[in-house]
Design brief:
Number of strands: 0
Number of helices: 5
Largest sheet: none
Shape: flat
Strand content: under 5%
Length: 150
């Protein structure tokens, strides 16, 4: 029995998103090291990390909704940047930062769960409903508005 293609696509999207988040973190941390883009090495690293991060984010968004993908990407980037900023740049870690991390991670996890639920519903609906064919199906308009799922 093979895995559901919809779920496989979701997993590919999430893998791209996690990979992309590493470049987002690298971009943010290396930006600090550029000293306002006056240091060549960190400036080049910043530019490459930004370009690769955006490219890999675009790959993730082939499989994920833009709102979910971007929000989780930014959240991972934010949390990762604060954690590594504490380790690399000796920035202070406070209780409030930790509470914010828990909220960000909880929100990202909730988005991931709701994305999986929506993909599972879509897969079940397409397995149950046969594809419409014939002249009536060709005349049927396709939705062009935003997708609303519960």
């Amino acid at each position: 029995m093979s895995a559901d293609p919809t779920q496989q696509n979701q997993n590919i999207g999430w893998a791209w998103l996690l990979f992309s988040s590493l470049f987002e973190i690298t971009f943010a941390l290396s930006t600090e090291a550029t000293h306002a883009f006056t240091r060549l090495g960190p400036s080049l690293l910043t530019a490459v990390a930004a370009a690769v991060g955006i490219y890999t984010l675009s790959q993730a968004l082939k499989y994920l909704d833009v709102g979910v993908g971007y929000t989780v990407w930014a959240g991972i980037g934010g949390v990762g940047t604060v954690v590594f900023g504490t380790l690399i740049y000796d920035e202070p870690m406070t209780v409030w930062k930790v509470i914010a991390f828990v909220l960000i991670i909880g929100g990202g996890t909730s988005l991931r769960i709701t994305d999986k639920i929506a993909a599972d519903r879509k897969a079940r609906a397409s397995a149950v409903a046969p594809a419409a064919t014939g002249p009536a199906a060709e005349a049927r308009p396709t939705p062009t508005g935003p997708r609303l799922t519960s």
